[in-house]
Amino acid sequence: MRWTAAGPALTWSAPGRGTRESPLAAGRRLAFTAEGARRCVGVWRAGRWTPCPGAREIPAGAGRDQCTECARLDRSFSVAADTNAADPRTYRVYLAWFGPGMTKVGITAEERGAARLLEQGAVAYTWLGRGPLMAARRTEELLRAALGVPDRIPYARKRAVRAVLPPFAERAAEVAGLHGRATALPGWAETLERLPCEVADHTDAFGLDGLPRPTGVVAGLVPGGAVAGWLAGAAGPDLHFADGLVVDTRLLSGWVLAAAGEGARTSVPVRPAEEAREEQEGLF
């Protein structure tokens, strides 16, 4: 799943046939089945897709859609893995809020705008600074340590609170307070420009006002298994259905999907939401 200017969309890709996108709009019925086996999607770099040489099979419940070899190649030239320090682009340091007491600091290329925040499921955020990659990275580490915030928050924790969030004023106040503490800290990289607090909110983008409390989470697809329901909203990589089912779209990547009939019902393994939260804390 990708977040585009028009909203979330599923991106389909196949060797020799390019890619296409299917917009995901609240109120739409989704029904599909999985075919064959889940296979590595290969490597996407510099606007070019290289299929996995062996089309290797990968576990149905894995958060990563790559085999070990392709994942290693992907990380060999990655900003996230600190193996592409020469990236000349301007980067931004951000403060992302996912729920009460769930905040993180991170970086993203300025040209991507808020796409990284949408992909992570950030309910609210503000920019902290902008500048060269390594200056952004050093300041990111400084702020994490000084503010006592983690470098990542499991998606299971994020989705558990989406239906019971405090009003915008409360979350904006928490973000603004952390922004004030962050920008007042000494030790920022000299080449990183501090940015004012301007809290942005993704309530409308995610459809948060209409999300039901999660009741079950798809544990993984199986050959011939179906997922079906009415889409209530989407946040980060998660699709929220009107009946409380949640589908982490990272588990779809690597499968061949086909349309299911009108009478199709969900027939893949589903864990109760609370059980899934406990089990998935360390998976993604």
Describe the structure.
The protein is α+β, with helices and mostly antiparallel strands and 284 residues long. The protein has seven helices and 17 strands. It has a seven-stranded mixed β-sheet. A hairpin with a 2-residue loop joins strand 5 (43-45) and strand 6. The longest helix has 17 residues, at 168-184. The protein is globular, with a radius of gyration of 19 Å. The chain starts with a strand and ends with a helix. The relative contact order is 0.18. Mean pLDDT is 90; it is low at 278-284.
Tell me roughly what share of residues is in helical segments.
Answer: 10-25%
Q: What's the helix count?
A: 7
- Measure the end-to-end span: 16 Å
Contiguous low-pLDDT stretches (5 residues minimum) are 278-284
Structural class: alpha+beta
Number of extended strands: 17
Q: pLDDT average, as an integer? A: 90
Strand order of the largest sheet: 16-4-13-14-15-12-17
User: Looking at the structure, what is the overall shape?
Assistant: globular
Largest sheet: 7 strands, mixed
CA-based gyration radius: 19 Å
Strand percentage lies at: 25-35%
Helix/strand order, N-terminal first:
EEEEEEHEEHEHHHEEHEEEEEEH
